Amino acid sequence: MSRIAFVNGRYVPQAKAQVHVEDRGYQFADGVYEVAFVLGGRMVDEPGHLARLSRSLEALAMAMPMTEAALGAVLRETIARNRLVDGIVYVQINRGVAPRAHAFPKGPLRPSIVVTVKLMPVPRDADTWAGVAVVTLPDLRWKRVDVKTVGLLANCMAKQAAAEARAYEAWMVDDQGLVTEGASTNAWIVDGEGRTVTRPLGPDILPGITRDVVLRLARAHGVPVIERAFTVVEAKAAREAFLTSTTSFVRPVISIDGQTIGNGATGSVTRKLLGLYLDHARGAGLAAA
Ligand code: PMP
Questions:
Q1: Of the residues 119, 145, 178, the one at which a domain ends
Q2: 282 and 203 together in one domain
Q3: pLDDT, tens digit, for every residue of 65-98?
Q4: Residues lining ligand 1, CB < 6 A?
Q5: 3-state DSSP call for residue 210?
Q6: Domain containing 35: what range?
Q7: Tens digit of each residue's pLDDT (9 = 90 or more) over 132-163
Q8: What's the gap in Å between 94 CA and the centre of ligand 1?
Q9: Is the pTM of this model over 0.85?
Q10: If you placed Cys at 151, which of 29, 135, 247, 261 could pair as Cys (CB 3.0 to 4.6 Å)?
Q11: Of 73, 91, 119, which closes a domain?
């Protein structure tokens, strides 16, 4: 079955879907996006993703082209039309079409919206979600990466460097030697005192929806967590390391720059958090959080 995309108000075969050559998303990366996981046909953490999308639009002085409720309905309709069971739904909103000029065009512009879906694998349990390798490299991105824009070239370069090193992810490092985040994931360690550590929110990391859920699940289940930045040196000496994202869930990290973390197997804290997150994603919710 060929995939169906939602493009500016119409559901069209994805192979025939098109955007305008003067769309500012195409020319300036002047657009924002979201990716939500679809599990058993149901979106995971839909309200969180829609709220972050609204926040990204606001940060760029772009109007939400429809209400969050209406957009939620479009996402669900695209999922249904594609008969998607397990995968992701992607939504991108660009400022719109205008003659090329850097400053935002004056007057109202009709934002462009595209929604697509893609099949993705789902971990069954901690035993089938193998640990991965990470490499570290300098964070070359702009200073507002908390806004989820489609300007992802530095992230793509980092991911490419990881792929060339046969690693799953690149952890990016700031001028102080502190890990910011992965090219498309948030970074975590379990420190020498057994505390789960991740960098606090700020302009230098994306406020991951998975990060937020994992923090809340950890606190609700008595797993000690602390939001503070950590160095590459500390990460390499950590008891455990893992990364989080919509498509990686909670993924164990078993080596950093070729150095084995812990005993090279999934650690107990990572295993517990993955289990809690999978239950949450499957619909158990955050009842206790
Ligand atoms: N950081 C970056 C740079 C990302 O692209 C992503 C994926 N959107 C994340 C972190 C993880 O965010 P989330 O848990 O919302 O997928």
A1: 119
A2: yes
A3: 999 999 999 999 999 999 999 999 999 999 999 9
A4: 35, 155, 181, 184-186, 206, 208-211, 244-246
A5: helix
A6: 4-119
A7: 999 999 999 999 999 999 999 999 999 999 99
A8: 19
A9: yes
A10: 29
A11: 119
